[in-house]
C-alpha cells in the first residue's frame, strides 16, 4: 500500500500548475484517462501544451513510484487513473474504456 501513498504525494505535488489544469478541466477541455494521464477533450495548441506538460510530470512521478515500490509502471498508472477518476468532480470529463469522453 505504500505505492498508494506515493501516488497521493505525487498528485498533490502538482499544485504549482494545478490552476491551469483545473481551469481546463472545468471548461471541459481536458479530462482524466484510465491510464493516469490527462487527455484533450477539445484539442487546441494551448490545451495540448497543458496536456503534454502534465503528462510528462505525471509519468516522471509514476516511474519514480514504480521504481521505489518495485511495481510495474502499468500498474502504477492504472491505479493512479482509477484514483484520479474517482476524485474527478461531477461535471468534468473522464475517458471510458472505449476511448470516448463522458461527463462525470
Automatic annotation (TrEMBL):
Matching InterPro entries: YdbL
Protein origin, superkingdom: Bacteria
Pfam families per UniProt: DUF1318
Keywords on record: Signal
Keyword Signal: yes
Signal peptide: 1-18
Protein name per its UniProtKB record: DUF1318 domain-containing protein
